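Entry for the shared binder. Reason: the reviewer on the internal report wants the predicted structure included alongside the sequence.
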Amino acid sequence: MLFPLCMKQILLKLYTDVCLICLQSLTVLGCVINALVEASTSSKGRHIPYRDSKLTFILKDSLGGNSKTCIISAVSDASISF
């Protein structure tokens, strides 16, 4: 019985760590988008924090470059989605 309890604690910690990393990446993505909006509306240059997360570093060319981005979302109000 001790082994399943230890595995549960290990998996819970791993899941928590992964969730924190994803949350941090999404937060940095929001900061990058805000910085890009501010840079486009002001005349002086502003630092864009692409290197603050792996996600924004990978998406650097797509976010700040001369590209078109499309976001596809599946939204439903069905009770099975909750």
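Summary line for the report: The mean pLDDT is 81.
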